[in-house]
Amino acid sequence: MPAWVGPVADYLAGGLRETALLALVSIAASLLVGILLGALLTLPGKPVRAVVRAYVEIWRGLPIIITLFLIFFVLPIIGVRVNTFIAAAIGLSLWGSANVAEVVRGAVQSVPRGQAEAAAALGFSWTGRMRHVLLPQAARRALPPLIGLVVNLTQQTSLAAVIGLVDILEASQRSIERLTLSGGSTHAVPILGAVLAVFFVICLPLTMLSRWYERRLH
């Protein structure tokens, strides 16, 4: 085994841990906030829906990389400073929660209207209808696109490298630069191939699960 493999593997492993933690935090925050916002988008009151709709359209419409720049470089101008991990987690969660909200809204509204009317006739409040009737039925419809969003969000963690987070992609780039400076050979193909394999192993099973579940629903 070449002498450079061991140190590079250790460095990439540290980057992989950072990537995995960032993905888990972002996915959890996106699901928690997004499900709540998606439910609020079905409220009968227009003011609340308008505020939530503005949130969704803003963070869905902005490229993630712009959001990361705003959080990491613009917020310090007004005295709000966050480290690279928190900035990346917030940026990814804003984008993810906005997309989850839209998925949940569509899934809830796809439930036959008679279900909500029957629950209302039984005396359920909006919260009760949402908790006991609509969301359980909407979950089956929302699951395939939500799995797709999880895959997409995992892939988008690589954008955190632009603000200096040492994730697996940034670790691979720094390893290539160090090997180039020290030995004159980049070894870029095996290093980037390893990064490609990691993302492939993580994302392919989730993509296959989403397709299988979608076929099962149909």
3D structure, described in words:
The protein is mainly α and 218 residues long. It has a single domain (5-217), classed as MetI-like fold (Orthogonal Bundle). Helix content is 81%, strand content 0%. It contains 8 helices and no strands. It has helices at 5-40, 46-61, 64-74, 84-110, 113-121, 126-156, 168-183, 188-217. Helix 1 packs antiparallel against helix 7 and helix 5 (113-121) packs antiparallel against helix 6 (126-156). The longest helix is centred in the first third of the chain and has 36 residues, at 5-40. The model has no long low-confidence stretch (mean pLDDT 87). The chain crosses the membrane at residues 20-41, 62-79, 146-169, 189-209. This is Amino acid ABC transporter permease.
